[in-house]
Design brief:
Blueprint: E1 2-8, E2 16-23, H1 28-40, E3 47-55, H2 56-64, E4 78-81, H3 84-98, E5 102-111, H4 112-121, E6 135-138, H5 140-148, E7 152-156
Antiparallel strand pairs: 1-2, 3-5, 4-6, 5-7
Amino acid sequence: MSYDFKFWSLPQSRRFIGVLTLTGPPHKGWHWFFDHFHILSRLKMEYTPIYRAVGAFEKTDLETLRYLRPAPGAYEGKQFGFDPKETFAFLRAMNANNGYDYVAIFKIYLPVWVVKELKAKDHVNVDTNIFKSGTLTVGLEDLSFMNSYISKIERVWLD
């Protein structure tokens, strides 16, 4: 007896990723595979960094929880830059001109295909005078999807 499991990207795009065939009756090995599939699927992926300027509340979240969550009462999506220097320039401009309290920049590694999927849905251009390399806006509906593929989060230190 064999079972085929088909893997797709975001449900909206229905892009086919592949088929895994497991043979024999379900047993502990199957459970191990599905418990660890999320980790195993990361082993051969290419990753790309995206950058986010954050305030104190979100900084604490990223350092302790290691994922992004919506801020109550604020825009519920998240916006990212592709270049650390541009993101730092944005942080400084927002703090100086708008009285914001951004305190750090984080580098978040995602699989290249995830960034492409999210970018395909993104129709928002944020501050194009600063972000020459472009931006990525992730809406609330895609935030948990993005969180599930975060490989690594690290704070960026710029002089």
